[in-house]
Design brief:
- The protein is of the alpha/beta class.
- The protein has helices at about 20-30, 55-70, 85-95, 115-120, 140-150, 160, 190, 210-215, 215-225; strands spanning about 5-10, 35, 75-80, 100-105, 130, 155, 175-180, 200-205.
- Helix 1 packs across helix 9 and helix 2 crosses helix 3 (about 85-95).
- The relative contact order is 0.18.
Length: about 230
C-alpha cells in the first residue's frame, strides 16, 4: 500500500511563533501527516533569546537544524510572510531534503537584498522592532485579531536588516506553490510573477494575511495538494 502521509515543516512569519500555526498543525496531524512549526529564535515562547546577535542566519539555522536533527526528508517546506525569506535561505542549505515548497502570502527576495530594503519607510534603528498595530477587519474574526495582538512579540532587527544570499536553489525544488491571500492588497504583484512560470502553481484564498488563523481548513487542503 502506498504511504500517503507527508512531512511538513512550517516557517512562521514575523512577530509570531509556532503557536500561530497550531490550528493547521492539529488538522495535518489528524489526517495522519507529520508536521512541525518550530518557533524562530527570539520570538514567541523563545522571546527571552531575543538580542542583537539574532540574525536572518539564526532563523535559517533554526529550520535547518529542525530538519537535520529530526532526520526529516522528502519534506514540504511551508513559509508565511517574512518566513518566505527564511525558507529561501533554508533551500540553499538543504534543498536535497525538500520535495515541495509553498509560499503562503510570503515575501520572496532577490539575492543580496533584505526585508528592510523593501520596507524603506520603517525605522530599523532599534534592536527590536515591535509588531505593527492591527486594525478591525484584519482578521475574519475579531477575537482572533485580539488574540494575535496579545501574543505578538518584538522581532530582532538583525533578522530584517541582514541581506539574503541566494543562488536560486528554491527555484530548483520540483514543486513550487504560491498561495495568495486576496482579502487584502499585499502580495498580488509577487504572486503575479509566478502565475505562468514553469514549475509553479498559484492558488488564491479569500482571507487576510494570516491565512493559517483565518482559514485553516481550506489552507490544509491546499497544503496537502501542494505536497
Amino acid at each position: 500500500m502506498t504511504d500517503t502521509r507527508k512531512t511538513f515543516v512550517i516557517v512562521h512569519g514575523a512577530w509570531t511563533g509556532g503557536w500561530s500555526w497550531q490550528r493547521v498543525l492539529d488538522r495535518l496531524h489528524a489526517l495522519g501527516h507529520r508536521a512541525y512549526a518550530p518557533t524562530l529564535t527570539g520570538l514567541g515562547e523563545r522571546k527571552h533569546l531575543a538580542g542583537p546577535d539574532v540574525s536572518l542566519d539564526t532563523h535559517i539555522d533554526d529550520i535547518v537544524n529542525e530538519v537535520l536533527f529530526k532526520d526529516l526528508t522528502d519534506i514540504t517546506l511551508v513559509t508565511h510572510s517574512y518566513g518566505g525569506i527564511v525558507g529561501t535561505g533554508v533551500a540553499e542549505r538543504i534543498a536535497d531534503r525538500i520535495s515541495a515548497i509553498v509560499f503562503v502570502d510570503a515575501i520572496i527576495l532577490g539575492d543580496g537584498t533584505s526585508f528592510a530594503e523593501v520596507m524603506p519607510y520603517w525605522d530599523f534603528s532599534e534592536p527590536l522592532i515591535a509588531s505593527p498595530p492591527s486594525s478591525p477587519g484584519d482578521y475574519l474574526r475579531e477575537e482572533d485579531r485580539l488574540w494575535v495582538d496579545q501574543k505578538a512579540t518584538p522581532q530582532p532587527t538583525g533578522t530584517f536588516t541582514q541581506k539574503i544570499r541566494l543562488t536560486g536553489a528554491y527555484e530548483r525544488i520540483p514543486r513550487k506553490t504560491y498561495i495568495l491571500a486576496t482579502g487584502w492588497d499585499g502580495f498580488r504583484e509577487t504572486a503575479g510573477k509566478y502565475r505562468n512560470a514553469p514549475g509553479w502553481t498559484v492558488r488564491e484564498i479569500a482571507t487576510g494575511h494570516d491565512v493559517a488563523i483565518d482559514a485553516p481548513d481550506e489552507l490544509v487542503g491546499m497544503l496537502v495538494e501542494a505536497a
